[in-house]
Amino acid sequence: xxxxxxxxxxxxxxxxxxxxxxxxxxxxxxxxxxxxxxxxxxxxxxxxxxxxxxxxxxxxxxxxxxxxxxxxxxxxxxxxxxxxxxxxxxxxxxxxxxxxxxxxxxxxxxxxxxxxxxxxxxxxxxxxxxxxxxxxxxxxxxxxxxxxxxxxxxxxxxxxxxxxxxxxxxxxxxxxxxxxxxxxxxxxxxxxxxxxxxxxxxxxxxxxxxxxxxxxxxxxxxxxxxxxxxxxxxxxxxxxxxxxxxxxxxxxxxxxxxxxxxxxxxxxxxxxxxxxxxxxxxxxxxxxxxxxxxxx
Length: 296
Hints:
Layout: H1 2-27, H2 34-51, H3 56-79, H4 85-104, E1 108-110, H5 117-124, H6 132-154, H7 158-168, H8 170-175, H9 180-206, E2 208-210, H10 217-228, H11 240-264, H12 272-295
Antiparallel strand pairs: 1-2
Helix pairs in contact: 1-6, 1-9, 1-10, 1-11, 2-3, 2-4, 2-9, 3-4, 3-9, 5-6, 6-11, 7-9, 10-11, 10-12
């Protein structure tokens, strides 16, 4: 049971990253590579703040704000300097590697023995005392639930609908006088702020921040999103955004379950990124394969 709860809690924490990537890749239709650097940026800032005695919750908020600035930079590179989406994200991601080392002062920073949001929850509720796994699960569930409600409400607002319209048909939005540059920048800032918060939570969960913790994060998030899309037909909701967000949560948990099963079958942990890339490539290619079958 402890292993099952731990797998679920990890899936919920990584769901926050998947939410951020979902906004750019699925809603905005923007291939943003900044997420890997933003995840590490959030973890780095959070680790430095906590080691200097800052409240872990405040550290989470500051990490999210700092990561949103990374999204702002990517947005400016794309909208103002007309650099291609994927290249603008890569440029910011590369710059963040050096920035993250500067922030921590070294390649990794330990949080062992420091107060975290998880330890605060453990100390606040007697039933959770000395039960990190259950605390992580409950905290992840609360944060994901709040994010689902918040994002669902946001994408029903005028700005949220405009961002969705920009992702669906940018030319149409421009022809109607919409400022698509602002919509893109704002969506990138929201997306990367979520990635930064995810990085801060992951750093607190694993007890350290590392400059390479974001490597392959986008592939993990995409795997969660694509796996989650398999549940779309099973969830009977008319609200597409709400249904998609719930599916992202389910996809992230399923991905963690798959990783757990694969490791128990004897796979070398160093091969996990290769396995994730392979699975994601197959899942992304299935729609095209089905079209080819129909044509034949």
